[in-house]
Design the sequence.
């Protein structure tokens, strides 16, 4: 029997120590590269956006890979890409990440939320944003668990 899945994931991870390393120069190419990584893992990227210290990704998870493996490969390959392409040897992602599944009823809302990151973060810190997201999903919040 052929396996069929439809698991939509909203993932968030920060730069190491939440350093503001994602510049306008880096952002667009990094997003394209991350989309390529997802496609190579047979995951379909829906939307990737970031601000200076973290990235949000919305994608369909392949039935071939565990989520932890996909995130590990995304962070490893994209940090190597940014480090070499933009001569940014200090660019690294934090160890942890946040991820939740998204149902079809919430897809448009999550998409709009990710698309609006630059505007959203004019008033909200990464820590406050993550705390709010965790509360919405009923997840105990510990920012240090993502370090």
Sequence:
């Amino acid at each position: 029997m052929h396996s069929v899945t439809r698991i939509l994931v909203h993932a968030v991870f920060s730069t190491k120590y939440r350093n503001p390393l994602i510049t306008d120069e880096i952002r667009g190419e990094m997003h394209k590269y991350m989309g390529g990584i997802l496609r190579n893992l047979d995951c379909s990227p829906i939307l990737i956006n970031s601000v200076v210290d973290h990235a949000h990704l919305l994608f369909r998870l392949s039935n071939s890979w565990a989520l932890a493996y996909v995130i590990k490969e995304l962070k490893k390959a994209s940090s190597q890409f940014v480090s070499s392409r933009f001569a940014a040897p200090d660019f690294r992602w934090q160890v942890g990440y946040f991820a939740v599944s998204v149902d079809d009823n919430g897809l448009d809302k999550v998409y709009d939320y990710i698309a609006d990151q630059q505007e959203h973060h004019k008033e909200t810190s990464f820590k406050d944003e993550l705390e709010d997201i965790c509360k919405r999903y009923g997840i105990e919040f510990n920012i240090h668990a993502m370090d």
